[in-house]
Amino acid sequence: MFTTKEIMTDRLILNELQANDHAFIFELVNSPGWLEFIGDRNIHTPEDAIAYIEKITVSPHIKYWIVKLKEDHQPAGIITLVKRDYLEHYDIGFAFLPQYTGSGYSSEATRAILEVLPDEILKDKILAITTEVNHRSVNLLEKLKFIYEGRIESDGKTLVQYALSADEIRIGKIIRSFFNLFDSTLKEPDFRAIDELCTESVGIIRKSGHQTDLYGQESFIEPRKKILTDGTLQQFSEFETDGETRIIGNIAQHYSKYEKKGWLNGVYFEGSGHKFFHLMKETGEWKIAHIIWEDDV
Q1: In whole angstroms, what is the distance from residue 176 CA to residue 114 CA?
Q2: What integer pLDDT is reported at residue 1 of this predicted model?
């Protein structure tokens, strides 16, 4: 299976599972949530945990990532990717210690892994399975836009199967990359990346009350590049807080609700708004063809 470097999100650090994670794995697999919804793995000693990790790390069909908090590097949970014999596609999963549930860490970490999966793993879709009574897991999958596909039987248990299409994962990555184009919180933005995200003839519209501003790629980027590099706009970030994608063949529409914040001429501000992206697939790759947005008043 593929390997990944350290993955960082706003609040988390993800690293591939290693032998020295055995103390955390011992705690996690014996936590109440794991025992209730995943099952007893008969890991009762540190040696059991080490052997369990070794089985995972040598398997070509299993990958675990340890999820740690950025602020103190405390391990909080895991994200798993498994090719199971009874499933046609790879299955993504998550498990967190009880004190770290309910804080959005699971969805943040799962999205981070989905965005680094190579095409040979993604193929047509990624699956997720759970039990019907695991309401927290079901709610998280629905929040991540996984679609219910039905019930399956495995080892005498009834599980529910959800799926997220590879195209939706790729489009989600493009949308988040577009928002990140203008993020100046950690480093100067790299505006050249817009060429990889948009078609050459991309059309961009800003709606503000009765006013409509029309842009091409260059006329949109240049004024934003100026204020983000000359000190006018500092520590700026814009990020999606909710979204929905609809795909029909080789065309798609993505709706984004977003928030933004930063320092404009030395004054801190916050804002929000709505964006619609139209995308199309060209030579197997999705690109943004049209954007229209309006800030909230």
Answers
A1: 12
A2: 79
pLDDT at 28: 97
**High-pLDDT (> 90) share of the chain, %:** 91
- The predicted pLDDT at position 216 comes to 95
- Residue 102 makes CB contacts below 8 A (sequence gap 6+) with none
pTM higher than 0.90 for the full model?
no
* Percent of the chain whose pLDDT exceeds 70: 100
DSSP 8-state class, residue 103: S
Give the burial string for 90-129 (b: 16+ CB within 10 Å, else e): bbbbbbbbeebbeeebbeebbbbbbbebeeebbeebbbbb
Nearest to 145 by CA among 254, 281, 260, 7: 254
Instruction: Supply the DSSP string of 25-65, one letter for each residue.
Output: HHHHHTSHHHHHHT------SHHHHHHHHHHHHH-TTEEEE
Q: What is the pLDDT of residue 157?
A: 85
Q: Where are the alpha helices (DSSP H) in the chain?
A: 22-29, 32-37, 46-58, 105-114, 119-122, 135-143, 166-180, 194-197, 217-229
